[in-house]
Amino acid sequence: MYRLYREHASLKITKSLKYLKHAEKRIPALTQTFSKAAFTFVKGVYPVYIDHAYGSHMVDVDGNDYIDYLCGLGPIILGYGYKPVDDAIKEQLKNGILFSLPHKLELDLAETICNTVPCAEMVKYSKTGSDAVTLAIRAARAITKRDKIAYCGTLGVQHDWQTTLTTRDYGIPSWNRKQIKVFEYNKIETLEEIFERDGKNIAAVCMEPTMFEPPKGNFLKKAKEIAHKNGAVLIFDEIVTGYRFAIGGGQEKFGVIPDITTLGKGLANGMPLGAVVGKTEFMKIFDNVFFSSTNQGETLSLAAGKATIDEIRSKNVPRHLWDMGTKLMNGYNKLAKENETGISFTGYPIRMRPVCVDSNGIESLEIKSLLLQEMITRGIFLHPGVDYIGFSHTLHDVKKTLAAFEESVKVVKKAVENNSVKKQLRGDVIRPVFPPKKMGTKK
Ligand SMILES: Cc1ncc(COP(=O)(O)O)c(C=O)c1O
């Protein structure tokens, strides 16, 4: 049996809570990133502020050490403090951060991206994934001279055009929503309907090649055919899947090459870098599209990007991610099944999510909160919505995590049987980033 970091309930987060109190005065919503907000986790039990991180571990301001499966929300694909990337940043720092003219690193990294991502022939950088997706949409609108978007999903984080679909659409003009036509993944008829109704006005079909469910029945190929038959641009949002599902991302894994792709998480191991890449005939539109920002060619991120991709290629990082992730996911599901709980981990081994259902098969945030509480007090940092694996996660980490899970699952099982889930929670029940009803909305 692996020794766990600490005994149940001995987790002290006093300093974290003190900082949180301070944040009430200085930081609106207490966070820069809703998915990292205290309310997203079990508030009162989970750490809130981090001091530093190394490899696959994070250390909070109270000195508690965790194996981290959120990986900074995905970008920490290689690991924290990963030497070849940090060295590249330090080396570039000696030369300068930002200049009055473009730096040659823009070209070096573009070459590397074009040698790895199948659809990439030209590269336009951004500082965030949200900007990259927004920019891809702007390009498609400029290319087609159309406004509407066929969009798959409701993730709701990528700027106005998409956030308008969520309950956090405050401040976004209502006409924006009318431009977005939503279709469902693996239901090609929902995309067909959009084009039958409004095909001449659709600028782009925009989707992740996959989220948690694999494409079925040639879904991606059919979506591409429909887009092209109707003169629309096919955009794959590979912010998450890029460099993770395969070196060439989801398009390489599933063998469907889009016109334009967005990249972000996984591109620079935590440095702020995104990119829109694609075939020259589409990317040339950026000769005229205005997306021009002072820090766009900032070189520490470009150096990190180059070093990150070099490592991903030379070490075949996706193979490690699939290998470790499969061991972890299979282990979770085996233990959950043996203990006959309503807990499972679904999705992909490299992008999985915990699902907790009650005895009626209904998703229960209370049960999930208890599971997360038990895991964090045993030194395992899980996110309720998505968990990743990085190159620094070792077999030792996986075994430790499964040992913690075995204990946690037993606690949850007992609590469910005794009807004492809520009583055993020492903090708040987790809350979704997008509340089901809008603030101030009448019932
Ligand atoms: C699929 C997808 N696209 C785009 C984004 C936005 O990226 P960023 O958070 O870097 O702005 C995210 C963020 O979670 C994402 O998951």
TrEMBL record:
The keyword Methyltransferase does not apply. InterPro entries: Aminotrans_3, Aminotrans_3_PPA_site, PyrdxlP-dep_Trfase, PyrdxlP-dep_Trfase_major, PyrdxlP-dep_Trfase_small. PROSITE patterns: AA_TRANSFER_CLASS_3. Keywords: Aminotransferase, Isomerase, Pyridoxal phosphate, Transferase. Its EC number is 5.4.3.8. It catalyses: (S)-4-amino-5-oxopentanoate = 5-aminolevulinate. Pathway: Porphyrin-containing compound metabolism. Its cofactor is pyridoxal 5'-phosphate. It comes from the Archaea. It is an enzyme of class 5 (isomerase). One of its GO terms (molecular function) is pyridoxal phosphate binding. Belongs to the class-III pyridoxal-phosphate-dependent aminotransferase family. This is Glutamate-1-semialdehyde aminotransferase. It holds the Pfam family Aminotran_3.
